Amino acid sequence: MNTKLRVGLCLAPFACLVALGMLVSCTDDLSVGAEAVDGGEGGTMGSGDAASIDGAVAVDGAMITQDGGPDSSSSADADAALPLEDGGCGVVIAQEGAVVPIQVMNDAVPQESGGILSPGTYVLTSYKVHGAGPQGTGNTRETIVLTGTNAAGAMKRLSEISDSTGAFTAHGPLGEHFTFMGDTITPVMFRSEDCPNNSVNQTVQYTVSGTTLTLLDEDTSTERTYVRVN
Fold it and tell me: What DSSP string runs through 18-54?
């Protein structure tokens, strides 16, 4: 009986050591090539490593969703994916605007209030025809790039029209280039179209409110509202 007891005492520590060794080996195997994310213990995630964060996977700093597509919350990725479009007239920009309906209001022509123009890229959010302006229907989208100041500047516009009737004509990406002059006292700029037409001194009223820019073409009573995206 004493012999059996001594044998039992000798075998127990050995078994514990073997089990501990297996646990350490398994842990090491699992940790090979993996590092902590966001500066946790073990270092930061290296180039080419992947880590799961809230159902998405980060690879080289880019978030990829489980379905393999880019994370929709990343606006930078979305902007980078937009192709440049050549509308002619030296207008080669991305069409960042969404499609909006052309609205014929049949009401009085509004008056704009002016403001300080801010250079940047703007996308169309509203297209309204007032007074005795063109009649018809359609869908449109536009992106403009504005440079300069109230005193003197330039504008590139990329526009499209689809599903049109009446006075509106459908067309694919169309580039237009304008120059303009104005001031900060009156809500009016004098715009000249360099391309595709050569039209001078078009009277355009405008309103600036935060990141919103509204342009009213007095000749056609057409009011376009844009929001600055960058």
Answer: HHHHHHHHHHHHHHTT---STT-TT-PPPTT-EEEET
Q: State mean pLDDT over 18-34.
A: 41
What pLDDT is attached to residue 208?
97
- C-alpha dihedral over 88, 127, 112, 96, to 10 degrees? -50
Task: List Cα–Cα distances, 113 to 75, 209, 214, in angstroms.
Answer: 32, 9, 10
pTM, two decimal places: 0.66
**∠208-210-211 over CA atoms, to 5°?**
90
Beta strands in the chain (DSSP E): 50-53, 56-59, 62-65, 84-86, 92-94, 100-104, 120-129, 139-148, 152-162, 171-182, 188-195, 199-209, 212-217, 222-228
Pick the closest to residue 195 from 166, 158, 163 (CA basis).
158
C-alpha span between 126 and 199 (Å, rounded):
25
Task: Decide: helix, strand or coil at residue 197.
Answer: coil
Cβ contacts of residue 172 below 8 Å, gap of 6+? 160
Q: What is the pLDDT of residues 78-119, one digit of tens each?
A: 445 789 999 999 999 999 999 999 999 999 999 999 999 999
Instruction: Please give the domain boundaries of the chain with CATH numbers for all domains.
Output: 44-81 (no CATH), 92-228 (2.40.128.50)
Q: For 154-170, what is each residue's pLDDT tens digit?
A: 999 999 999 999 999 99
CB 145 within 8 A of CB 153: no
Tokens at residue 83, please? Answer: 């192709």
Q: Among candidates 162, 171, 165, which has minimal Cα distance to 98? A: 162
